[in-house]
Amino acid sequence: MIRAYKFLLRPTARQTVVLRDMLSDHCSLYNGALQERRDAYRHASKTSVRYGDQSAQLREIRAFDPERQGRWSFSSQQATLRRLDKAFRAFFRRVKNGETPGYPRFKGVGHFDTVVFPKDGDGCRWDSTPYDRQTRVRLQGVGHVRVHQHRPVQGRVKTISVKREGRRWYVVLSCDEVPAEPLPATGAVAGIDMGTTHFLTTSDGEHIANPKFFDRMADELAEAQQHLATFPRRTRQRSKRHRAAARKVAKLHARIRRQRADFHHKTALALVREHDMIAHERLNTAGMTRTPKPKPDPDNNGVFLPNGAAAKAGLNRSILDAGWAQFLSIMANKAESAGRHVIEVDARNTSRTCLACGHVAKANRATQARFECTACGFTANADHVGATNVLNRAGLVLCDVA
After folding, report:
1. Claim to verify: residue 206 and residue 146 sit in the same structural domain
2. What pLDDT is stored for residue 237 in this prediction?
3. Which is it for the CA torsion 184, 188, 191, 192, positive or negative?
4. End of a domain among 154, 176, 198?
5. Is residue 349 part of a domain?
6. Could you list the residue range(s) of the whole structural domain that residue 24 is in?
7. Angstrom distance (rounded) from CA 70 to CA 59
């Protein structure tokens, strides 16, 4: 089993400066390689430059600029070139499939936040001493950096990444051969229905409240963003006060992100511990949060009819604030480690199907919270009905597999 571990780094002031230099130099390498590809295609009869061609130039680049490029890990620089190559391959795949291409763009220093070391021991070594809170990671050109290791690392460390989030630094370990830790069987099964009023409802009738972290921070975030917007465009990225205002906005978003992830981990762990099998709807959150298409007025050229975009924007914000996709991914990973089963079922009409007679109709959903069957008169909480239907469909899936 593969698992990632993310730990907070505690670098010294000098190490913080060197870490910033490392990101800056890798960013310059990325942008230089991108410029070479653009120039080759434009001015050399549409010649394509591949990863192998650019990787072969690394030795010359390091020898030419030993102060900026020569002091960092060779393999980490290769990983940066692979990152660019991956972006181009994704670009050409989208072009081939007729999707919006999205040509790879140059990275600003403030938007290049990760350096990857493809192999433990090659430019970066994880301290494999017994688990304690004084672990260190050795980075070429930086030195031994303290790590706040809050849990033991299992398996074999494959790749190591150094990541910057605001003013915090993290090390991310990707490990394979991680042993599973199965939990004892409970004999309980559950279906869950995701929502925005309630974060989720189980087939047992339990409602888990939606914390709405973004809404709770909306006023403070709006104030910070308004202050950031007061700076004239000509002074942006050059004023010390502007950079401080931008950091405050980023800090608030980072806090919301950490709170949401913490809630997802704790909620998923509770469900996995209490149930042997968990069923949920197969949700396409990207499609659910897509902006409505404009509706041209056939009678008036250049005029558009109301398409409900304002109301849809509020629903989209609530769905993204809940973070359904992240929660379901976390729950699936925890279930795999614990030896539990997670089943996805078709989400269509789960909240419109009567539990008593099986009648399916849009009118069955009387309100957002109330289900009332138009055929037999059965009434219940709409989210509870949805969760129960999800569990029933999971049972049918298991029967088909058996």
Report:
1. no
2. 60
3. negative
4. 176
5. yes
6. 3-176
7. 9
Residues 6+ apart with CB under 8 A from 47: 40, 41
Q: Are residues 164 and 270 in the same domain?
A: no
Find residue 343's DSSP bridge partners: 279
d(CA 191, CA 193): 7
In this structure, the answer to whether residues 87 and 62 fall within a common structural domain is: yes
Q: Using CA atoms, how far apart are residues 325 and 316, in angstroms rounded to an integer?
A: 13
109 shares its domain with 52: yes
Q: How far apart are CA 116 and CA 129, in angstroms?
A: 22
Are 87 and 114 members of one domain? yes
pLDDT tens digits along 309-339: 888 888 899 999 999 999 999 999 999 999 9
pLDDT in tens, the chain (402 residues): 889 999 999 999 999 999 999 999 999 999 999 999 998 888 866 778 899 999 999 999 999 999 999 999 999 999 999 999 999 999 999 999 998 888 999 999 888 999 999 999 999 999 866 655 568 999 999 999 999 998 899 999 999 999 999 899 999 999 999 998 999 999 999 999 999 999 999 999 999 999 999 999 999 999 999 999 888 766 556 788 888 998 899 999 999 999 999 999 999 999 999 999 999 999 998 888 888 888 888 888 888 888 888 888 888 999 999 999 999 999 999 999 999 999 999 999 999 999 999 999 999 998 888 999 999 999 999 999 999 999 999 987 666 544
254 CB-near residues (< 8 Å, 6+ apart):
165, 166, 168
373 belongs to a structural domain: yes
CA distance 180 to 187: 20
Return d(Cα 255, Cα 267) in angstroms, integer.
Answer: 18
Q: What is the CATH number of the domain that holds 319?
A: 3.30.420
Residues 150, 69 share a domain:
yes
